[in-house]
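Students often ask why inverse folding is considered easier than folding. One informal answer: many sequences map to the same fold, so there is more than one right answer. In these notes we will look at a single instance of the problem. The structure comes first.
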């Protein structure tokens, strides 16, 4: 009979047996959650229970917490080192070229495009000011070795 008992109600003061109503209930049936005190009361209840052999559906579980957001990662592109940024910042020619709003917009557009490399190559081929800017940047980042 123990397979029909879902919970032993040891600490349930105030719950009388639903069958005999004389004793404190210690158990609860799994088919209809009727509280009972003894094997005799259990057998009396099961003999007349319309839900005999059934099990109550499980209580719904709370939804799981949402997964944590993915960690922020830097895009897989070449990053400039501190000394390279400093070297670029110290170039008056580059600062002068970057005063151009059209060059600023072009750089923003290339950076925001899904096909950065293709857009970069087209801009270098078709826009002389951008090609000049790129050449100056490359000269600063990768200076020619002294002969």
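Output (designed amino acids):
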């Amino acid at each position: 009979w123990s397979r029909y008992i879902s919970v032993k109600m040891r600490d349930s003061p105030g719950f009388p047996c639903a069958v005999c109503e004389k004793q404190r209930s210690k158990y609860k049936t799994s088919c209809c959650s009727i509280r009972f005190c003894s094997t005799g009361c259990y057998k009396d209840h099961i003999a007349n229970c319309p839900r005999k052999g059934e099990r109550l559906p499980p209580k719904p579980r709370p939804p799981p917490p949402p997964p944590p957001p993915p960690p922020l990662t830097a895009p897989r592109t070449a990053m400039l080192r501190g000394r390279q940024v400093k070297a670029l910042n110290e170039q008056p020619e580059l600062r002068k070229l970057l005063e151009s709003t059209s060059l600023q917009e072009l750089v923003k557009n290339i950076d925001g495009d899904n096909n950065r490399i293709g857009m970069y190559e087209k801009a270098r081929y078709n826009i002389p000011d951008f090609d000049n800017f790129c050449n100056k940047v490359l000269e600063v980042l990768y200076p020619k070795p002294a002969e």
